[in-house]
């Protein structure tokens, strides 16, 4: 039986992870659905068990084996989430409609494209146009920039607590040059989307300022450094949002435990000409998705 003494509402993020785990039947498929890592799902299940004071999952063998308490909670949570999913069908239709043009950097653009299914399912009358930042002047209704932007409009500062860390292909991790500690980076190729600022900050955080490395490669954006890293070309700095899908799928792995904060938040900018209701609906949805990934990731 679940403890009746638990008065506080359990973490909704943990409940969402538990519901996905039970419905999908495995940690891997639940992680893919929620766009987080396997370990993030396991962490949330453990957190939920601690909050409720009972074991929910038996950790033996493959698949999902629920305890008696887990089966009881599963029935209640599954019903609750199904009711939540159906809310929009019982309410008067007030969803905004029309065309929305969203401009942002390539790496974030790629990430957003993997999350769109839930937005499109609830906003069936929206025609969505995803654009590069360079196209922002071509009538963009929303601009998402890392750090501030000269674009005029209402500003929403978002994702203030992003943490950066090195990532690489598992092939590189298990290659001829071992990667057991940050100083081992000296024998590697480092991939940069800037002039070296992020890697220098990592070296400071790791206690190895000014580390000289085998080779440096500079690229115009984070999308290219992430793609090069998945191909085994080198090691780049990233985060759970931009590299989340690759971390979940195992095409990238995180190196070491040291991380450091991103220098800026993201800004969501809604220009004066935009349909405010539609832009606000999209920005609210996007913030919920990305903040969940960053917290759980």
TrEMBL record:
Keyword Transmembrane helix: no
Domain annotation HTH lysR-type: ranges: 10-67
Record protein name field: HTH lysR-type domain-containing protein
InterPro entries per record: LysR-type_TF_proteobact-type, LysR_HTH_N, LysR_subst-bd, WH-like_DNA-bd_sf, WH_DNA-bd_sf
UniProt keyword terms in alphabetical order: DNA-binding, Transcription, Transcription regulation
UniProt-listed SUPFAM superfamilies: Periplasmic binding protein-like II, Winged helix' DNA-binding domain
Similarity field: Belongs to the LysR transcriptional regulatory family.
Pfam families (UniProt xref): HTH_1 (PF00126), LysR_substrate (PF03466)
């Amino acid at each position: 039986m679940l403890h009746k003494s638990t008065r506080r509402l359990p973490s909704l993020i943990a409940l969402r992870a538990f519901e996905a785990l039970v419905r999908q039947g495995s940690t891997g498929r639940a992680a893919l659905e929620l766009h987080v890592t396997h370990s993030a799902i396991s962490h949330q299940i453990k957190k939920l068990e601690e909050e409720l004071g009972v074991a929910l999952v038996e950790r033996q063998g493959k698949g999902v084996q629920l305890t008696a308490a887990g089966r009881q909670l599963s029935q209640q949570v599954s019903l609750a989430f199904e009711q939540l999913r159906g809310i929009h069908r019982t309410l008067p239709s007030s969803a905004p409609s029309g065309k929305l043009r969203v401009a942002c950097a390539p790496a974030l653009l790629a990430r957003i494209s993997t999350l769109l299914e839930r937005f499109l399912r609830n906003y069936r009358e929206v025609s969505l146009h995803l654009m590069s930042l360079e196209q922002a002047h071509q009538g963009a209704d929303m601009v998402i920039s890392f750090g501030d932007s000269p674009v005029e409009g209402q500003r929403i500062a978002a994702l203030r607590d992003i943490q950066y860390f090195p990532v690489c292909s598992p092939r590189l991790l298990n290659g001829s040059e071992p990667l057991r500690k940050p100083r081992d980076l000296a024998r590697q190729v480092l991939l940069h989307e800037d002039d070296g600022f992020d890697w220098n900050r990592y070296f400071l955080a790791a206690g190895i300022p000014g580390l000289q490395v085998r080779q440096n490669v500079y690229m115009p954006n984070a999308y290219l450094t992430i793609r090069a890293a998945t191909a085994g070309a080198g090691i780049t700095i990233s985060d759970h949002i931009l590299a989340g899908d690759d971390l979940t799928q195992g095409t990238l792995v995180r190196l070491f435990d040291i991380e450091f904060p991103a220098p800026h938040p993201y800004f969501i900018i809604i220009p004066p000409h935009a349909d405010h209701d539609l832009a606000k609906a999209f920005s609210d949805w996007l913030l919920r998705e990305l903040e969940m990934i960053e917290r759980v990731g």
